[in-house]
Amino acid sequence: MSRQYTLAEGQPQPSNSSSVQLRNGHGGGHVLLQDTQLIETLAHFSRERIPERVVHAKAAGAYGYFEATHDVSDLTDASFLNTIGKKTKVLLRVSTVGPERGSADTIRDVHGWGMKLYTDEGNLDWVFNNTAVFFIRDPIKFPSVNRAHKRHPRTNMPDADMFWDFHVGNPEGTHQLLHLFSDRGTPASIRHLNAYSGHTYTFTKSDGSFRYIKVHIKTRQGVKNLTAAEATRLAGTDPDHLVRDLFDAIEAKNYPQWDIFVQVLEPEQAEKFNINIFDMTKVWPHADVPLRPIGRLTLDTNPRNYFADIEQAAFSPSNMVPGWGPSADPMLQARMFAYPDAARYRLGVNYQQLPTNKAVVPVYVPTQRDGFMTFGDNYGDDPNYVNSMLRPTTFKKNVVQAATTLSEKHEKWTLEMANAFTTTVTPEDYVQATALWHVLGREEGHQDHLVENLADSIAGVTHAGLLQEVYKVFANVDKQLSARIQAAVEAKKKGQADKVNAIAGSSGTDKHAMHTK
Ligand code: NDP
After folding, report:
1. Residues 72, 85: Cα–Cα separation, whole Å
2. Which residues line ligand 1 (CB under 6 A)?
3. Where do the record's region annotations for Disordered lie (predicted)?
4. pLDDT tens track for 132-180
5. I need a labelling partner for 65 at 20 to 30 A (CA). Which of 131, 495, 500, 501 fits?
């Protein structure tokens, strides 16, 4: 059936490619205010952009499905996991973090893994990263770490002094720096990266029991990374390399897959565990807490429209389903506020009604209504207030409260108020970074690449005192690592100085030549 062009309110539109003008007979013309299509075309164009995400702006995305592959009914009641073979529709959005929406996606960065599972008990969002840890463990530093990675307030350029000043002052993130500056900071494609919850979550059951979990997502394509040189070249020749690779693979029916695992700790184990399980700068060593498979992810459908499907998608760790709960990880708790807050700012207060965010199950929340861009019937004449559980409203029948999903046995800890555990950094905080340095030593070239990649960045530091502090931080990881970084930085700085001198020398000759002409 053919369609006809209309104005935005449905009136037939005979000509959308020429404006209505008063012509003067010599090729000129005065456009008319009555040309509604012209006015709306121009006005809509200047309003096309919505606020860019302050982090995670550049991304690729696709649809697919999660398939439960193992029985985990001893751990959780989550419906999407309760039958082997059960499939749940998924939207995945993978992004760099710091750079802007139009930036090259092979730039070294952590990669965000935003995934919405449209389950039969509402949406579950996994807002993970391609690294198992993070730079900070106190959420008050979240804006600061991101600003230090972005642009300097004066020069509007990324700034090595600012970056390293932050990290020297917050060395609990050294473990994550090793991940970032290893080759995993420049993945060869989205199909070839792993992802991790980083945070500790809980699996809960209706009998009131719960376990702590961390999620691991492992690529079935194998981990593959770019060297720094390849990533830099691609940033110039194909700045949308990651977006293109994923799109092309799915168009060619080469569907990428990941296996999904959890690490599980019983609450009693957690209390005795030698690592703070709420500290996002730490992993749970595999030897202590093995991986248990739960499912498989397959991406098989490209978005039909990037803006509607991917740009308007909003992910939040607060989107949880029965059987899946939060933990006392302070970073998780803060993100559960910050992510929906960012979506309300970026998309508007009714962003959950947008098709890409809309749950596939019926939604009934009549106490959340009105506001900009309310779609649908806005709950008609249903009460917009709550009564108590003891005496439901007289005016709405056949609506019941869901069974409670709160786990009564959940986390009985003794609490005292304090200015957090992040104020001190102890030798313990470097143990896992040292372990990673040794993991990199298992494969030829990986330690060399880490040293080179770090030195590339550190060589941009201009403040001599700061440089010494950077070396000291890495000496806490491994003395040899620090010495190698220092040697590489000094070589790069000498190379830079020689280059400047050569340019100055040659321009001096030119000036002289001009002068003597
Ligand atoms: P293991 O020796 O059991 O595991 C090391 C893990 O490191 C591997 O399983 C792999 O995880 C990951 N890895 C391998 N090569 C690289 C690389 N080039 N860059 C980054 N990660 C790599 O040791 P532990 O569990 O005791 O952990 C030792 C260190 O390994 C940790 O300090 C941490 O930095 C790193 N690591 C640990 C993870 C964990 O959850 N325990 C997860 C990821 C890294 P994978 O297959 O997931 O890529």
Report:
1. 13
2. 132, 179, 182, 184, 194, 216, 218, 223, 283-287, 432, 435-436, 439-440, 446
3. 1-26, 496-517
4. 999 999 999 999 999 999 999 999 999 999 999 999 999 999 999 999 9
5. 131
